[in-house]
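Structural biology now treats backbone shape like a language. To illustrate, our science desk offers a sequence and the tokens encoding its fold:
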Amino acid sequence: MAEPTARIAPGAAADARRERPRGIFRRRRLTEAEQREAYFTATQWRLIWLKFRSHRWAMGGLGVVCVFYFIAMFNGFFAMNDPIERNTDIQLQPWVFSGKDISFSLFDEQRNFRPVVYQVTSKLDFELFKRVYVRVEGSERPLRLFVRGHPYKLLFFIDADLHLLGTGDPDVRWFPLGTDQSGRCLYSRMVHGSILSLSIGILSIVITWVLGILIGAIAGYFGGVVDNVTNRFIEVLMSVPSLPLWIALAGALPLEWGIVQVYFAITVVLSILGWTGLARTVRSKFLALREEEYVLAAKLDGAPIRRQLFRHMLPGFASHLVVDASNRIPQMILGETALSFLGVGLRPPAVSWGVLLQGAQNVESVALHPWLLLPALLVIITVVAFQFMGDGLRDAVDPYR
């Protein structure tokens, strides 16, 4: 009589055959029995990765997030100009996509295909009552890769002056996304602002995790009076509207504080209410896990409470914490952007996407200078990418489904 075969989840064998990831399936074609065995002997994190990798939109979102954080880490290398240097003669210079760009051309004066950059100056047109920009004759410079430019700190402590794109001539510079009201390169400021806007989400989620996991674990493990008091406190905090509280706390920050002090203060402000939902999730998980046999065995074996909580119970739903982080980080980024846009968050000379959007607070600026809204596009792309990644993680945490 033939041996009964193990029951496999619908579509699991097909997914495994299609994926063929390294470390689980070898390059040769495996039999159905080998695929089944490899699938059910894989680790939990490996199964999550297999499921996540089959979600194309989630993989796309992960790619966008990785690219943005990579650019933020090496922002000085990717920036073309000094983000704080003011150029009073080229205020609000249009970007290259305006249809009338005079600072850049794909062909040189001999009509050869070679990207070139021209020096641009401005003058006042008293007939049209506006500033017009003209190209300086004889200022053609080729656009090159890996050129020397303004100095910066690579990874915040290494002196460097190498840039990805540029002309190598300090007198002829290119502003691909135009300039702001002070004549500063908007592209370079967006690149430099990414480090504050993206890192504040990571730092806020760390504080949120520490508070949410610790308070939720204590409430779920001990239960009783501790659980009741903790729940009532969480309910009171959750009843307070987030945005008005953020504005009130951020507005109370002393004006004489420096950039670093305000940065960490805004991080704490964004984390004050963010931990409550996570704490309730952790509490419900711990209430269920504390009755599991392996937790009772650890308790009878004399394991300390700290080991029971963080060595035996917390890893049981660590994958859910990753999903929670992917959903909360964009909320923190949006919170910082909103506070800085309203003028109660990060303030100049700090550079973040929210601070850059302060220049587009009126309809006139948006209508005449639409490139000032480009930082909002970066915020939208980042939030959407995190949402796609969170959807993929939410499906992947249950790889047997």
Q: What stands out?
A: The beta strands are 104-107, 113-117, 120-125, 130-135, 141-142, 144-154, 158-166.
